[in-house]
Amino acid sequence: MLRLRSTAAIALAIACLPAAFASCGSDAPALLVSADGKYRVAFIGEGKWIETEGRQQMEAALARLPQIDLVYAHNDPMAHGAALAARQQGRTGIRFIGVDGLAHEGRRYVQDGLLDATFEYPTCAAAALDLALLACRGVATPGAQMPAVAARRAYLVGTSAFSRDNPAGEPQPGPADIALLTLRRQHAALLDAGEGAPVKIGMAQCNDAEPWREAMREDMKAWAQAHPFVQFDYRDAANDTQKQRDIVADFTAQGFDAIVVSPKESLALAQVCKAAIAKGIKVIVLDRELGSDDFTCFVGGDNVQIGRLVGQRIRQLLPQGGTIVEIQGLMTSSPAQERHRGFVEGLQLAAPPR
Amino acid sequence: MKERWRSPAARGAIALLAVLLLGAAWNGHGAFFRHSLHLTLWDSVSVVGLVAIGQCLVILCGGIDLSVGAVLALCGTTFGGLQLMAGWHVLPAALAALALGAAFGAGTGWLIARWRLQPFLATLAAMVIARGLARFVPELAGKPAGSKFMPPGAAVPESWQCLSGHSLLGLPTTGLLWLLVAASTWAFVGHTVPGRHLLAIGGNEEAAHLSGVATRRTKVLVYALCALLAALAGVCTVARDGFGDPGAGEQYELKAIAAVVVGGTSLQGGRGGIGLAVLGVFTLGYIDRILSINSVAAHWQLVIQGAIILAAVLLQQRRR
């Protein structure tokens, strides 16, 4: 009796399998075509920021498409995985573009000839700590003389492009870079010589167990060494929302002058940041936005701009047009959405008429 | 007298006391002596605390539940969706989430009791299924799978602020709720027939069965209760975070198991108690906080926490 029942269950499961595959197939991503019709995005896969997943997506794309001219991955590890997948299958002539441009990662891949270009996604570590220090010293950031920044209290820092022709990088500054440079020049005495009372700055990191945030941590440590008059405390929440909330609350209780926070979840940190601001503590939001208005200023890279520059670079690399594969980061995260949006804008892509 | 020092409760209390002394000595420039630190700690550990109480019930019964973190996410996401997208009132939404949790747990318990599946494997499968369902829930509301339920305009509902805020005498509401649940669960285990039965099953299932204990029914009840408490923790998480997140509660099963074990409840089942689990939750919470206020690097925090769990298990071994 029991055997009969389990056999029936297995038979049912096998019968359901084709249905499951069919439903996967119907979910195939819509193709995008540029306004001039030259550039076709023929495959879009979600690599979720992870190298092996990017590689798997590329394997699927290689299996489906006989001709691929260029791969745009939302970060360098996925681009690297895709390049390795193509190399393993002996497919040549494909160009690869990544994003992040870390010295020991994307830039090295470009030097090694695996990637054609990568765009730096700045950690903004030094900028955030400079802004925190200036805010503690009573300098208004952003000041009224910077309308581009002041409207949203956001410093959107530009990028640098690293490519085969230009492995040293060509900076692509944004308006915030000029504003930051001006601030640094004006207040060099405060920033470099450490005039005034001692300052305590705390950093509440969401999770530094990934390459880009490791780089941010090292940038911050370097900044702290260059500024011995600042008592700098770096704490990592290890990807735990509650822990990050506790860290901000502890900084507040311990009487820090400024808190730099890179929120894991934007909404979840609003309450503790509000409490910190209420105690007169400066709150600098780094890279990911906060779900409320209770902060001093925001500083971070400009993902939409990077996406646009990727589009421009594709026009340079493939003047005749071509078939493009996009390997996306985790599409529930805002950087992936923005890197996709900028790319769509940069190449003027749209879904083709049916 | 010597016997009393060796009792599990005394050991749990001594461990907590030792950790508090460590905090007093290594106080992060006086931060450890501020009462706000202890209040926020109580509030902060209460969600894991709720999960740990359910986990403790299962462990006392000789089982283990790996699915609690995922059930937390499933029920929390459901609660958030019902209130934000379906426009339900807070109470029915919370009750529906709790009922879903209890039903899910009862299903897992039924698999373990009726089909004699190993708890580790059955709840491992339940964990994966619940995590998948949690990611599917947003699709029911017409959102992409795996996305979060955010309140429109970041305006967190008032009921959520109440649940995550501070109530009478400035004490944290979730913290009070946790201790209330702990007290009633303690009474359930110590002073009711099913509570006695679950201890008997954890001690010796065969003997309990032969003595006329309804082992199957009790097991289903225990797993349902555990998932119910995880669901309650999920509702509290949503209220606290301000959104429903299918990725919530990641690794909470491990934190809860660690808290139960550090408290002094035996993984073999039958020996231990709810009060010990509460002690364990505070012990681990304080260790975490002391390391944090002294800016110990995250990787060393992991190593130190692991070492402390090992030490607790070794202490248990010596007792037997």
Plain-language structure description:
- The complex is a heterodimer of chains A (354) and B (320).
- Chain A is an alpha/beta fold and 354 residues long.
- Chain A has helices at 2-25, 51-64, 76-88, 106-111, 125-136, 147-150, 175-186, 188-193, 211-226, 241-253, 270-278, 303-317, 334-346, and strands at 32-34, 39-46, 70-73, 95-100, 117-120, 154-157, 159-163, 170-172, 199-205, 230-236, 258-261, 282-286, 297-301, 322-328, 349-350.
- Chain A starts with a helix and ends with a strand.
- Residues 18-30 of chain A have low confidence and may be disordered.
- Chain B starts with a helix and ends with a helix.
- Chain B is an all-alpha fold.
- At the A-B interface, strand 10 and helix 10 of A face helix 3, helix 13 and helix 14 of B.
Feature tags:
heterodimer, A: 354 residues, alpha/beta, nine-stranded mixed sheet, 21% strand, globular, B: 320 residues, mainly alpha, 14 helices
Indicate the topology.
The complex is a heterodimer of chains A (354) and B (320).
Chain A: H1 2-25, E1 32-34, E2 39-46, H2 51-64, E3 70-73, H3 76-88, E4 95-100, H4 106-111, E5 117-120, H5 125-136, H6 147-150, E6 154-157, E7 159-163, E8 170-172, H7 175-186, H8 188-193, E9 199-205, H9 211-226, E10 230-236, H10 241-253, E11 258-261, H11 270-278, E12 282-286, E13 297-301, H12 303-317, E14 322-328, H13 334-346, E15 349-350
Parallel strand pairs in A: 2-14, 3-4, 3-14, 4-5, 6-13, 9-10, 9-11, 11-12, 12-13
Antiparallel strand pairs in A: 1-2, 1-15, 5-7, 7-8
Helix pairs in contact in A: 2-3, 10-11, 12-13
Chain B: H1 2-6, H2 8-25, H3 35-60, H4 68-84, H5 90-114, H6 119-140, H7 158-164, H8 173-191, H9 193-203, H10 205-210, H11 215-241, H12 252-263, H13 274-293, H14 298-319
Helix pairs in contact in B: 2-13, 3-8, 3-11, 3-12, 3-13, 4-5, 4-6, 4-11, 5-6, 5-11, 7-11, 8-9, 9-11, 12-13, 12-14
